[in-house]
Amino acid sequence: xxxxxxxxxxxxxxxxxxxxxxxxxxxxxxxxxxxxxxxxxxxxxxxxxxxxxxxxxxxxxxxxxxxxxxxxxxxxxxxxxxxxxxxxxxxxxxxxxxxxxxxxxxxxxxxxxxxxxxxxxxxxxxxxxxxxxxxxxxxxxxxxxxxxxxxxxxxxxxxxxxxxxxxxxxxxxxxxxxxxxxxxxxxxxxxxxxxxxxxxxxxxxxxxxxxxxxxxxxxxxxxxxxxxxxxxxxxxxxxxxxxxxxxxxxxxxxxxxxxxxxxxxxxxxxxxxxxxxxxxxxxxxxxxxxxxxxxxxxxxxxxxxxxxxxxxxxxxxxxxxxxxxxxxxxxxxxxxxxxxxxxxxxxxxxxxxxxxxxxxxxxxxxxxxxxxxxxxxxxxxxxxxxxxxxxxxxxxxxxxxxxxxxxxxxxxxxxxx
Length: 417
Prior knowledge:
The chain is α+β, with helices and mostly antiparallel strands. The protein folds into three domains: 3-77, CATH 2.40.50.100; 84-192, no CATH class; 196-415, Chloramphenicol Acetyltransferase (2-Layer Sandwich). It is built from twelve helices and 19 strands. It has helices at residues 84-93, 99-102, 115-120, 125-134, 152-160, 195-210, 223-240, 247-260, 304-320, 325-328, 393-408, 411-415; strands at residues 3-6, 16-22, 29-30, 35-40, 45-49, 54-59, 66-68, 72-77, 213-221, 266-269, 272-275, 281-283, 285-287, 290-292, 295-296, 333-337, 356-360, 364-370, 373-387. Strands 9, 12, 15, 16, 17, 18 and 19 form a seven-stranded mixed beta sheet that branches. Helix 4 (125-134) runs parallel beside helix 5 (152-160) and helix 8 (247-260) crosses helix 11 (393-408). It is elongated and about 80 Å long.
């Protein structure tokens, strides 16, 4: 029967996942610890490694199926199996010219993707199907998935991209290339929500249904922080090996403000209020499959360098899809920086059971009055969304004012004012 491949432990409180994609097919050579499948949990994507080296035997569940922790999903048999190198050697020895030798590449509208092409490009079944239906040439795509794998989103993005100027090939919209496209310019596509997206939708709606949400705004003059960053960024990077960003300032400011307004860093549990004597900051990070919120543990005890290094690590691992459930566990307060995408103002939604979220936005020069004179200053809008059941309006406004004071006079962060 072969060696069983089981669903690994996925983290505390996570008991099931969705089989997102098979990364191997029957007969493929598999190395020990090489990923054979990708699982989607409520929080992250997880690769399932092969327990031994051998040949991929049988897939016991289909893509999209729900599987429990410990369930057997495939088998690994003895042998060497096939590999891209073996397939290429067989193709060469049989006299069949390779695509590179003939100059042939699958063109838009070409629905066939050979097993050798799929294996060489490491296409999962769902991605391979998307390639066949859309007519996109997978060889010309740059994968954004883990280890450079091509994802379905890469295929959809490539298909939606406008044709280059002067291109002679017909638009895929003008061809009957599969169920994802239709006649004319009016098209529809039905895609099942990922488990992560379903969880995001459920939790955000739960926050709206449960909490008494309210948002208060303020603006902050970023002149002093920008000047401090410009003055010390080179020395900071040379000493710590990481760039000095704005998140370190706002995280330290939030820690300072939370001491004066502890309800912002608390939660409701039944008929009790739980106050935290530490600040675990959830940082909203954009990932290929949706927004994720890894947690900076004990951020109030960290230095600027430790905060910036942790955030940079989260960002790179989010893009690579290697964040774990443990990275997202907990969190007592959230900072969401929509400014990196150009947002001017927003009303962020709290991340239950937290009671508040701080929204940062883009910096732009605006006319303000300073000492009776109208001057241009780099300004940013701040937004604090909070649960009014726990945080009063006076407390919310006070918290934002403390943030504003610390950012406009960063010396406060050093002398604890």
